[in-house]
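In practice, a research group might receive sequence data for several interacting partners and want a quick structural hypothesis before committing to experiments. The following worked case mirrors that situation: the sequences arrive first, and a predicted assembly follows.
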Amino acid sequence: MSYSIGKVAELAGVTVRTLHHYDEIGLLSPSDRTSTGYRRYDDADLERLQQIRYYRELEFSLEEIAAILDDPKADATSHLRRQHQLLTERITRLEKMVNAIEFAMEATKVGIKLTPQERFEVWGDFDPDQYAEEAEQRWGDTDAYQESVRKTSQYTKEDWLRIKEQSEDWGRRIVAVMDSGAAADSPEAMELAEEHRQHISQWYYECSYEIQTGLAEMYLADERFMATYEAIKPGLTVFLHDAIMANAVARS
Amino acid sequence: MSYSIGKVAELAGVTVRTLHHYDEIGLLSPSDRTSTGYRRYDDADLERLQQIRYYRELEFSLEEIAAILDDPKADATSHLRRQHQLLTERITRLEKMVNAIEFAMEATKVGIKLTPQERFEVWGDFDPDQYAEEAEQRWGDTDAYQESVRKTSQYTKEDWLRIKEQSEDWGRRIVAVMDSGAAADSPEAMELAEEHRQHISQWYYECSYEIQTGLAEMYLADERFMATYEAIKPGLTVFLHDAIMANAVARS
DNA sequence: TTCCAGCCTCCCGTTACGTGAGAGTCAAGT
DNA sequence: ACTTGACTCTCACGTAACGGGAGGCTGGAA
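A structural hypothesis for the assembly, expressed as tokens:
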């Protein structure tokens, strides 16, 4: 059984010109020609083309592929094994990219800026432990972060609008409480701290009192969060922190 | 805060030349220059570069990326959402490629040839139902195939040598039984049918009598399997089929 | 002041094809 | 036997996305 160049192109999902090119550079020359010069590809040619396609998908150059495939020490199975490993590595990398994007989405929701390291972590080659530590510190609890990502990836535009509206409303009310001169451990302030916790639980992740107090600590420690709250009203970060602490103590 | 071109290149994992190129074609021009002509990139530039890198990873051309990023209707979040979707699609495709490779490895072990469709299923755009049907027919049971892939992917070279030795030994013995003139429903033949079943159970997947009889049917129906067995000894396929049937009836 | 790494602007080279041009070929239908 | 439309052939130039210098300025540390 042999195949015309057009048929092979269709099967393998490449253009006829590509096959011409592979023939030109000697990477894949059809095992036969008709008397009129038409190329004829057989099963062995197809197997070689399959290998070429996989290695190309893995971004090997044609020259490298030629060297790899013509290596007498490597047989078909070893190629498959190698491709298998490279593919799974690649999948891992793409999954990291997906995580990074979800992280970036989270960040823009909350209104914080990413550090340059965070932006390019997938490509840059800096210490991965450092990142893990930062994320741990930022979110207090990694499981919570996972849950958050899982939940929020389902949200529609309307959901986000609702969340935004809700948190802006909450912002106005806590500012009003501050303006009224009430203390951070006043019932009104504590009520808003409680609402803050429930808002997070509802939309992002189950937020216990321990986690919330962790967040409060972080608001003071992380200048990006700090900037967000201070932009609404100076002193709000500390006020919220104190209200959360008072509320947590009172309720538990 | 602003960054030199070298620093940006290091952060983003690209070359300085690449950033020069992006500047040349107007895709990413640094927001500032020093009095001496040095490029200075700020946070907004980095964000744009981040988007560029993600879209590039997804194999968009620079021209397309420029069009996408300069579209006033799209904001940062919509880009992230889009990239998220494209990335997960890509992961799915790569996972299909991994499956295809595992399938190809299985096939070479068993000594059957792949059809052209099977070779290029990941790239070609033929009817996917047709393939599913073929796989179903070939393996009788999809779960079994999954289990097989899972198990065999762990095997070492020594394992494979052992398996090969074992099955060649079995081949010699069943040929001997045939040569002795024994019937397919003789105790010796049935014993070897039973061994065939246990061999599969041990190395590939839990092989019940129903599954084994399914395999026996398939050996007759699929000329690629047929070729394998007939190469050992003409008439072996039918003999094995009958022995399996007799054994299955007797044991259950 | 002296380095040397870093940056600048040309500018030519490379890879993996795309895209015709012009001409021969094949199989199906009349 | 003739036509016709889809395929295929071999040049041959074009393109995208950089790579890799050459030759010359800059900037901060010693």
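Before designing any experiment, note the following. Chain A has 13 helices and two strands. The mean pLDDT of chain A is 79.
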